[in-house]
Amino acid sequence: MSHVIKILHTTFGLFGNVFGILLFLAPLITFKRIIMKRSTEKFSGVPYLMSLFNCLFSAWYGLAFVSRNNTLLTVLASIGGGLEAIYVLIFLIFAPKREKLKISGILFVVLSIFSMVALVSVLTLHGNKRKLLCGLAFAITCIMMFGAPLTVMRQVIKSKSVEYMPFFLSLSVFNSSTSWAIYGILGKDPFIIVPNAIGTLLGSVQLILYAIYRDNKGEGKKDEMNGSIETGLGKPQEKKLDCIQNEIQKEKYGSKCII
């Protein structure tokens, strides 16, 4: 690797770390809302599980005995893995019982698969074979992480609202994946290039959707939906109760309520 290429490789790795950390910090707004409302509402915990899954394999793949010149990848993945673990824990605390069981089940599978691959790579494989196994696992989980928001993107198109697809999260996906894709190209590492190129494409689509539906946050519809689904006392029910009370006192107020 020439001197100039090496400098550019390191530079884009640092960019990838900066944008990657911003990507991992982007959900803070979402989790602040979850903690304040003590409910996960309609937010999905799957993207955070997929991110944790990817962080585990990213950190492992970046280790010197697996692949060379990818220490920056391990640094970012270690930071991201810690944050994603916290996000998953918050989801387990505030999610409905059915969602908790779902998240717990997926988390068990994630940790089991990672443990198995890590043990096999250490105990039975060496050199390029070890890199191949860990690289494939890293690339697959990276694609899964970038593909996880597809359900949210479908919801955005269906509802024509970007409320559950935060802008800074989408922007961070695009910036981070683009930086790492260039980093992979400079380092001639297909395991980094392919998944991050896909991430760049999906990040672009998210930004386009946000540009199209940015003026519609669906607040009124959300409040009504949350009231009826989560508490059983949405706005239609509240209005009906108000109507009954008004009917009882209609002689005093001289008016009727229309449902």
From TrEMBL:
GO biological process, one term: carbohydrate transport
Domain of life of the native organism: Eukaryota
GO terms, molecular function: sugar transmembrane transporter activity
Protein name: Bidirectional sugar transporter SWEET
Matches recorded under InterPro entries: SWEET, SWEET_rpt
Pfam families (alphabetical): MtN3_slv (PF03083)
One Gene Ontology cellular component: plasma membrane
Lipid bilayer topology: Multi-pass membrane protein
Organism: Nicotiana tabacum
Compartments (UniProt record): Cell membrane; Endomembrane system
Gene3D superfamilies per the UniProt record, alphabetical: 1.20.1280.290
